[in-house]
Write a structure and sequence with these properties.
There is one protein chain. The protein is mainly alpha-helical. It has one domain. 71% of the residues lie in helices and 8% in strands. It is built from 16 helices and 6 strands. The strands form 3 sheets. It has a two-stranded antiparallel ribbon with strand order 1-2. A two-stranded antiparallel ribbon has the order 3-4. Strand 3 and strand 4 form a beta hairpin. Helix 1 runs antiparallel to helix 3, helix 2 packs antiparallel against helix 3 and helix 7 packs across helix 12. The radius of gyration is 25 Å and the shape is globular. The N and C termini lie far apart (63 Å). The C terminus is likely disordered.
């Protein structure tokens, strides 16, 4: 492989590893806020017990997200120096805002979230949890803004800048808010946040279902499973609406990407069909072995049945590859349909009172934990590969953005190093995560808390403990 392809591969590996953790922490952060709010309202110790357990899981994922994210950013200087010089003024601004307004907020309150349970009042701890969750959402905002600008640039001018190597071009901000609210930023942000809720809810569903199947921590598992099921169902339905809005936006601003994701090689007359599945054949310019719904793509994109969708023939020679965006997009959509079906069926069973008696369904929830992670990764792959051959859409080609002094040996060696490092980190993550899950939540105590208002907390703890014993008796 050449240097450009190897650099792209290295960046994909580091980003995809990093992207395991942010969606999970965002989704879990919202759930922690819910649990602590319920505890403040009811003073039921079982909500605090659940919040303590999930906070330990949250902290592990937060730490690995920070560590893997730092490594990712170094590549802008090592592998993509030309790109960094070209977009540094624009790209650096949202990254700086992310550090100042988001990461600073998260890190300021993280210690209180993790270690402040018996050192501050319940209200102060809830505020710390809220701030950490808000910080993770703000972090997503600024990262999505930076990434979205590459797809739909706005609020900038191109200047010629004199350097020792000669005159180079540089994008400079003219309107910061136009950069923030570039045409794709808010659409992508909503999609990312909904996807994070799906990841977080399915993770909690999986662990809770495992406890229910093993008949361990049953009351805790039920109190975690039910709200996660409602959130998972709502988010799975909401992402359909978000995805539809995204498709309309892509058709307007990146029509070549849409054509690649749907395998539309040639612009036809009248309505364009949408493929449910298939295998694109770029040499023959057709999608083989597929199932297509006539006119549906036109209806979804243009809201009529007469306007054709632009094909790749209108954008040659600057067309993206078709195979990867097509399959990534369609598998992601298929997984989304699976999430809707599973969560709605789970809600139906819950309403009938049969959910926790269906062991096969609980096992399905256990083993579905990895699918939202895969769907999130595939969405990123479809978006980024579908942007090619541009690293900044219609402005800077990926082939022109790589560092000029790199060799294939340099990048190949770093890929091997990162591969080994990330395999070790992944193994450590799985080991520690499994250890925490096997230990489970700490049992509710009956002793008074050292938090301000300890007497009230003691009563709540004792009441929660008696309720837990009653639940155990009912199950026996």
């Amino acid at each position: 492989m050449d240097v450009v392809m190897l650099s792209r591969l290295q960046f994909a590996i580091t980003v995809m590893f990093h992207y395991i953790f942010p969606p999970l922490t965002i989704g879990m952060g919202v759930f922690l806020v819910y649990l602590e709010a319920r505890y403040l309202k009811t003073r039921d110790i079982r909500y605090e017990t659940a919040a303590r357990f999930w906070t330990r899981i949250f902290a592990l994922n937060f730490a690995l997200g920070v560590a893997s994210g730092i490594v990712m950013e170094f590549q802008f200087g090592t592998n993509w120096a030309v790109y960094s010089r070209y977009v540094g003024d624009v790209f650096g601004s949202p990254l700086a805002a992310e550090g100042i307004f988001a990461f600073f907020l998260e890190s300021s309150f993280l210690a209180l979230l993790v270690f402040g349970w018996d050192r501050v009042s319940a209200k102060v701890h809830f505020f710390a949890t809220l701030m950490v969750s808000l910080g993770s959402i703000l972090s997503a905002l600024w990262i999505v803004v930076a990434g979205s600008w590459q797809h739909t640039p706005a609020g900038f001018i191109i200047r010629d800048v004199a350097t020792p190597a000669g005159i180079v071009q540089r994008a400079e901000i003219t309107d910061f808010w136009s950069v923030v609210f570039n045409p794709s930023a808010m659409e992508r942000l909503v999609h990312v946040l909904i996807g994070a809720l799906i990841v977080g809810s399915f993770f909690i569903l999986s662990v809770s279902a495992y406890y229910l199947l093993k008949e361990r921590h049953v009351d805790f598992a039920r109190r975690s499973f039910v709200p996660a099921l409602f959130v998972g169902a709502a988010a799975s339905l909401a992402i359909v609406v978000s995805g539809d809005s995204q498709a309309v936006m892509v058709a307007r601003h990146q029509p070549a990407k849409l054509a690649a994701m749907e395998g539309v090689y040639d612009t036809g007359e009248g309505a364009t069909a949408i493929h449910v599945f298939g295998i694109p054949d770029s040499e023959a310019r057709v999608v083989r072995y597929g199932l297509a719904i006539p006119g549906m793509l036109t209806l979804l994109v243009h809201r009529d049945l007469s306007t054709p969708v632009a094909g790749l023939d209108q954008f040659e020679p600057d067309v993206p590859p078709v195979g990867i965006p097509f399959q990534s997009f369609h598998i992601m959509v298929g997984l989304g349909a699976y999430f809707i079906a599973l969560t709605l069926y789970g809600l139906w069973c819950y309403r009938r009172g049969t959910l926790f008696g269906k062991r096969w369904l609980l096992w399905v929830f256990v083993f579905s934990v990895g699918l939202p992670f895969i769907a999130n990764q595939l969405g990123w792959v479809a978006a980024e590969v579908g942007r090619q051959p541009w690293i900044v859409y219609n402005l800077l080609r990926t082939s022109d953005a790589v560092s000029q002094n790199l060799t294939g040996a340099h990048v190949g060696g770093s890929i091997a190093m990162f591969g080994i490092l990330y395999l070790l980190l992944f193994a450590v993550w799985i080991f520690v995560l499994n250890d925490k899950i096997q230990k489970g939540p700490a049992p509710a105590t009956v002793s008074g808390s050292t938090k301000p208002g300890g007497e009230g907390n003691m009563v709540a703890r004792y009441s929660g403990h008696l309720d837990s014993l009653a639940d155990d008796k009912d199950r026996r």
